[in-house]
Amino acid sequence: MLGAGFTGLTAALRLLQTGQEVTVFEKESEVGGLAAGFKDLSWQWTLEKAYHHWFTNDASVLNLAKELNHPVAIKRPRTDVYVNGKAVPFDSPSTIISFPYFSLTDKLRTGLGALFLKLLPNQKLLEGQKALPWIRKVMGAKSTKLIWDPLFDGKFGKFKEEIALTWFWARIKKRTPSLSYPEGGFQTFLEKLADEISKLGGDIKLRTKVSAISHQSSARYAARRVVRLQLKTKDKKQITQNFDKAIVTLPSPIFAKIASGLPKDYIKRISSIPHLHTLNLILILKKPFLNGTYWLNITDQSFPFLVLAEHTNFMDPQHYGGQHILYIGNYLPPDHPYLKMTAEELLKVFDPYLSQINKNYKLSILNCKLFIAPFAQPVVTTDYPKLIPQFQTPLKDVYLANLDMVYPWDRGTNYAIEMGEKIAKLIVSR
Prior knowledge:
Blueprint: H1 6-17, E1 23-25, E2 37-38, E3 47-48, E4 54-55, H2 59-67, E5 72-75, E6 79-83, E7 86-89, H3 93-97, H4 104-119, H5 131-139, H6 141-156, H7 165-174, E8 179-182, H8 186-199, E9 203-205, E10 209-217, E11 225-232, E12 238-243, E13 246-248, H9 252-258, H10 264-271, E14 275-285, E15 295-298, E16 307-310, E17 324-332, H11 343-357, E18 365-378, H12 384-387, E19 398-400, H13 413-429
Parallel strand pairs: 1-9, 6-15, 13-19
Antiparallel strand pairs: 2-3, 4-8, 5-8, 6-7, 10-11, 11-12, 14-17, 14-18, 15-16, 16-17
Helix pairs in contact: 1-8, 1-13, 2-13, 4-7, 5-6
């Protein structure tokens, strides 16, 4: 198993439960992948490097939490949009009706458009359509200009006009008013999952990077083919190990880079899906930044960030030593200059805009941390269904399972777990 995120760990758990022998390789010093976290000495709970939560209809992850006997908190936080210099609620039919910058016609068109997507049972009727043209036609020019166009631009940049309507449908379809969160934080939950894997005999090797993967004849068993992994261990040793099968949960471009013997057309296809980096600057504050809002979507296109998520307006700050935690979030192309900046340099860039929302916030700063994750968001265009990889790769006994493959849903830990269970079933059935 390559990668100890939710997909890899879930697949490992399910395979072990069927009597398979499993080894998990993870290049980082902790399990978790994109959901990994950290913990300050004064905190009781861990905190994710990038904001995370679950919806209350995320059945796969909630069932796993129940199986592991891990408590889950459920709350209804507030989601606002920042429009015309104000944070305005925009997370329910009633807040759409009361939205101060819409006419009655705008409210009806926006509400009915969202309701249509919410009630549509699947995405099939929407395949091949682009999101923003549909939104302009159905929800109207005012709604598009004030809300949707800025959000699509902030997240997808030059790709905004190409984003599939199926992606937008999935965002509306899955959203629930209340949100869930594992008590203790995602890292605590992940470590409990890792402990269960260890109890079942699984071996998780941290700080071990897989630098090459191939399928070839075994010197010991001439008639047998094996999956060979070249590893760089935590003590910087280079070793080679053979396995019957391998599940790769790394991003598709990374798999294409380390795998030997892949056909050129396959490499071209799986490498042609654009990906965005996530950048999260986390401010640790003495006082709240937002006035009760958990999630603030920024629709002012002059702002250099897309979202503010005040985690401690969702989970109680007492779990974090009474401190208040604010994520400043961005989705960026790989060549964006922000990705080369330090936390302090970014804060200088963001400061004039943060001060427009809370002019006194700098007096409360205790610390700031910066986390960047590459390949975190696949760009879902109308051509995306043609590009999605399959579990079985052209290399015999080598399987690929990553977040490029959860379409039509958007990336999320629930779908990572669901995919881990699916790939484990496929392995057992062969």
